[in-house]
Amino acid sequence: MTNFFCLKWGNKYPPKYVNRLFNSLKIHYNNSFNFHCLTENSKGLNKDIEIKPIPTTFDEFPRTQIFTSEKMCYFGDYANMSGKKAWFDLDILIQNNITKYIHKNHPKPKFIWNYWRNPLASKLNYGYLTTPINSSFVAWENDAGHEMYETLLKTKERAFFSYPSFDKYIFYQCHRKNMIDFWPPTIAYNYNIGAKFPNDLTPKEYKKYYKICLFNTSHKAWAKEHETHIELHDATGWAKKIWENYDTIL
User: Fold this and answer.
1) Mind telling me which InterPro entries this protein's record contains (predicted)?
2) Residue of 242, 192, 185, 238 whose CA lies nearest to 215
3) pTM of the full predicted structure?
4) Is the pLDDT of residue 31 over 60?
């Protein structure tokens, strides 16, 4: 049985984000699955969603440091859960079938590479901890990633002092040690930026052959003039239509 996960804390995203993600997987994944939501507030969530507690492993550190470190706990807390697994951020829109990608081999956790960014950005912006990695959709299997979890446990004081986000930690520590893999370029694109640097950078454009559209706005503070920073619930047109249609799935 495949197991899918999401993480919901606080009030930034209402229950409809979780429920629509759950429903979108019913459409775009062909096999049976369990859907787990790690949250402190399950009010309003679909009754078929399995509710799990948010990990407290790294609670001693402020959330402003490696601010989604809870994601690393997937590799620790669920290492004994066999089979295919994937987590999804809530601010994504699944728009095409992902079954065959989930069922590929994942001996290493598979992350998104930001193909919409200059591949030299981490060197050009040396000193600013620029990262080309995105953790909005990650797949793995069995106990893949457990070594990454154990390493962070052992080095947590230094890691949380050094890295301001989970994605940056993954890039500068796990990627350089060859501990992760990446999805192919046509898996994900960014609603607010585009799909591929340097020639396909039109925000808000529908890319019908891609599987997932990301709406993360972490680039907001340094967005280029042509880039937008629209949240999924503020999207209009095609994105709004697809997302709202996931309310009607049984």
Assistant:
1) Nucleotide-diphossugar_trans
2) 192
3) 0.95
4) yes
